[in-house]
Amino acid sequence: MVQIAGKYQLVETQNFDKFLVSSGVSEEKAKKINEAKPIIDVSFDGNRIKIETNLHKLTTELVLDQESEEKLFSGQSIKSVAKLVDNVITVKSVGLDGNSVGKRTMTFSDSGMETVYTTKDNIVAKRIYKRV
After folding, report:
1. Which of 36, 50, 63, 109 has a 20 to 30 A CA-CA distance from 4?
2. 11-33: per-residue pLDDT in tens?
């Protein structure tokens, strides 16, 4: 199995600004976030996943197969359930009102991580990271 834990540097982004705006982030803030090249630190301990972003001071902690609360770039809180199959973590999220927000899929390889974000309205964004 591919090592999941590690540090990842963003190298490419596709449609992420549109994804952020559709998720409630202002266009100005979405542009700044989209242009940044953050380092993501992923730790994995048993069934716990912790994802820390250096630029946005955003930390996400998830427990596999259990509902966890997260904060988004917009400040909105959501509830998410993460599942791990082989080298892929899929996170499905709903708002606090129970309505679907979307999902993200993180696929890990020896060279990096690719994250695909999909909103409830099928707006898709992709971010590609190299392992550092």
Report:
1. 36
2. 999 999 998 888 778 899 888 88
Rounded Cα gap, residues 92 and 103, in angstroms? 4
Q: Is residue 1 part of a domain?
A: no
Number of helices (H) and strands (E) in the chain: give both, helices first.
2, 10
Residue 113, domain extent: 6-131
**pTM metric for this prediction:** 0.89
Residue 30: inside a domain: yes
Residue of higher predicted confidence among 66 and 2 = 66
> 3-state secondary structure string, 36-67?
CCCEEEEEEECCEEEEEECCCCEEEEEEECCE
CATH number at residue 61: 2.40.128.20
